[in-house]
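Q: A small favour: would you put together sequence and structure tokens for a protein?
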Amino acid sequence: MALVIDLKPGEKILIGEAVITNDSQRTRLHIAGDAPIMREKDVMQEGGADTPCKRVYFLVQCMYLANDAEQYHERYFEMIREVQSASPSSSFFFMQINEEIISGNYYKALKLAKQLIEHERELVESAIEPAIKEQQS
């Protein structure tokens, strides 16, 4: 069964090692095969990985796109040890992500890593909110 992707005008998609840019009208692609596929909006550039969990996402993305995903495993597992020691509540996410990585399901791991970024954002907001209230008092 083929994956069906609708592209907006000008939208980019990464298929394997190729970046495809849609022309000026909507396009529907039917893609069959095992090449890694990512929409431009889901691709994180290394410079955009400006928080610990975004760096985890970036490493999982590298695994997903790489021909040799295992080259990123050591850096990934080092990073998650650091994040887990600072944020034990992230362990639940890492258990799921690790299971998908070990199974070779890098796309699923990537989706879970996106949830991890949201968890990180919520933690930061909950830590900042009391400090802001205190300053306003």
Summary: The mean pLDDT is 92. The two ends are 60 Å apart (CA to CA). Strands lie at 3-7, 12-15, 18-21, 27-31, 37-39.
